[in-house]
């Protein structure tokens, strides 16, 4: 029995992480070592003359139920490439959520277009499809839903809306490897889908990214932007469109091919543990879990999230709650701030944020999207690798939360 004195106040932690470390991340063994060595020894380290890049593109696209895949340097670049492949640029507007990593909205600025923020739902953390319609103007070209924590957006509503208004959909699935909506994996429901292989993501090569699509012309356009404007069928020194060098290396692709073999089991394990943790927390006073949606047939669980109500914890502010939970041995954080409060958007509002002079003026610093702000001040994130252990690990998390609730402030 653990003492009731909180570890943050000098008590014994629920979990001593020196003695009982959480499952390590990344996961690798000799398989990854020999895959990397094979690339090294082959001398083919380059996307252009190697075989791993194209093999990974095929394998990952097919895993996500898409026809085509185009690798690139990272998830941020993938979003920029997607918008450029779609011809979205200066003067255009793109609808984005305010509760996401900066790249979802920054990519819009990078191509000269204007991000238009639409509020999220507190019980999904994703953009509220029902509120998108009022943000559409004649300049709107695309919507970028981000699948926060690995949870797909309401694709029924979003795709219907996009079709009705003739808008492109770029799925930011950087956190959603393996996530599925009504039995189909995400990424090619819209026009293009983007993924990240940055170190914390559920499929990891340190850095890396991919775009997937069912549209061959769009995949080819993305490939051109990725590969300095070359055409797949063109000559070497023939640059038909403006691109960049966004090529991935063969080391990354070899690592990703090896890591992909682990992915299905990891997805199943995260889901299984998340279900156990949900059951343990569902009746916990002051903790609100995201809404269950049976149309989400696989949740990728890049994060396990819940909303925290301090009144149920003797008024303990959320920052003190996460500190206390960390001290009990449970890694956690409070996550994003509303994106429109970031300095880059204040600069844009002041006319300094974009090279495009035709962009619409939005007074970002005075935006207030109430649900996003409420979520930012109440949401707690647990990282995905906590879900890669056993059921007893889930008990540790629930026990630590209950212990903090009992403790007077
Ligand atoms: C990580 C992430 C990105 C960017 O990916 P990088 O590979 O780090 O550039 C974009 N969108 C979301 C939602 C992310 O979580």
What this model shows, in words?
The chain has 409 residues and is an alpha/beta fold. The protein has a domain at 30-259: 3-Layer(aba) Sandwich (Aspartate Aminotransferase, domain 2). The protein is built from 13 helices and 13 strands. The strands form three sheets. The protein has a seven-stranded mixed beta sheet, sandwiched between helices. The model has no long low-confidence stretch (mean pLDDT 97). The structure holds pyridoxal-5'-phosphate. Pyridoxal-5'-phosphate is lined by residues 74-76, 100-101, 103-104, 146, 172, 174-175, 196, 198, 209.
Give a quick rundown of the structure:
The chain is an alpha/beta fold and 409 residues long. It contains 13 helices and 13 strands.
Task: Produce the secondary structure layout.
Elements: H1 30-42, H2 52-63, E1 68-72, H3 75-85, E2 93-96, H4 103-110, E3 114-117, H5 129-132, E4 140-143, H6 155-165, E5 168-172, E6 180-181, E7 184-185, E8 192-196, E9 209-213, H7 216-226, H8 250-260, H9 263-281, E10 287-288, E11 296-298, E12 303-308, H10 318-327, H11 343-349, H12 370-376, E13 379-383, H13 391-406
Parallel strand pairs: 2-3, 2-4, 4-5, 5-8
Antiparallel strand pairs: 1-9, 6-7, 6-11, 8-9, 10-12, 12-13
Helix pairs in contact: 1-8, 2-8, 3-4, 3-7, 9-13
């Amino acid at each position: 029995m653990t003492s009731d004195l909180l570890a943050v106040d000098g008590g014994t932690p629920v979990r001593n992480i020196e003695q009982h470390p959480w499952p390590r991340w990344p996961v690798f063994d000799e398989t990854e070592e020999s895959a990397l060595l094979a690339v090294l020894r082959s001398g083919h380290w380059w996307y252009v003359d190697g075989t791993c890049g194209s093999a990974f593109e095929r394998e990952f696209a097919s895993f996500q139920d898409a026809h085509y895949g185009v690798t690139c340097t990272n998830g941020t670049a993938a979003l920029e490439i997607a918008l450029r492949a779609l011809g979205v640029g200066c003067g255009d507007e793109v609808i984005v959520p305010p509760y996401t990593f900066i790249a979802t909205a920054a990519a819009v600025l990078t191509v000269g277009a204007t991000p238009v923020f639409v509020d999220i739902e507190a019980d999904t953390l994703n953009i509220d499809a029902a509120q998108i319609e009022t943000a559409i103007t004649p300049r709107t070209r695309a919507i970028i839903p981000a699948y926060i924590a690995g949870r797909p957006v309401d694709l029924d509503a979003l795709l219907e809306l996009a079709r009705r208004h003739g808008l492109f959909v770029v799925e930011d699935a950087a956190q959603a490897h393996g996530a599925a909506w009504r039995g189909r994996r995400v990424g090619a429901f819209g026009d293009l889908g983007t993924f990240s292989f940055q170190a914390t993501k559920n499929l990891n090569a340190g850095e890396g990214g991919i775009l997937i699509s069912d549209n061959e012309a769009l995949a080819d356009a993305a490939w051109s932007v990725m590969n300095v404007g070359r055409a797949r069928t063109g000559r070497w020194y023939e640059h038909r469109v403006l691109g960049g060098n966004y090529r991935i290396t063969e080391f990354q692709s070899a690592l990703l091919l090896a890591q992909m073999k682990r992915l299905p089991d990891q997805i199943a394990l995260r889901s299984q543990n998340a279900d156990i943790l949900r059951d343990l927390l569902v009746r916990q006073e002051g903790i609100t879990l995201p809404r269950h949606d049976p149309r989400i047939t696989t949740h990728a669980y890049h994060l396990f999230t819940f909303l925290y109500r301090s009144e149920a914890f003797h008024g303990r502010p959320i920052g003190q709650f996460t500190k206390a939970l960390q001290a009990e041995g449970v890694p956690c954080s409070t996550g994003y701030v509303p994106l429109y409060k970031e300095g880059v958007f204040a600069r844009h509002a002041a006319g300094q944020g974009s090279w495009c002079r035709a962009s619409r003026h939005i007074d970002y610093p005075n935006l207030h999207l109430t649900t996003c702000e409420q979520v930012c001040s109440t949401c707690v994130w647990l990282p995905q690798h906590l879900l890669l252990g056993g059921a007893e690990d889930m008990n540790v998390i629930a026990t630590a939360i209950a212990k903090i609730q009992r403790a007077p402030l």
